[in-house]
Fold this sequence. Notes:
The chain is mainly α. The chain has a single domain, classed as 434 Repressor (Amino-terminal Domain). The chain has five helices and no strands. The longest helix is centred in the N-terminal third of the chain and has 16 residues. The protein is elongated, with a radius of gyration of 16 Å.
Amino acid sequence: MPAKSIHKDEYSVLLRRLRELRTTAGMTQVDLSTALQRPQSYVSDVERGSRRMDLLQLRELCNACGSSLTDFVDEFEQELDQVRPVRKPPKRP
């Protein structure tokens, strides 16, 4: 049975990238929550992985940190390329 997405290494990378996005922007969780008009606990829950976001919420969070969704995804994919194990093609009989 495959692991749930929240238990995959990729999800840990996503959470780390979200925290880095905020801190690189020089924002605290309170600053970001104010910009998003959400409670600070929302940002904390997102960064800990106990709250999932949809694509529109992720875009809003990126914009509040002065970034774009496309830049965030590009950087996320670059980091995943470094984390993912290189898989060998299956052997042919």
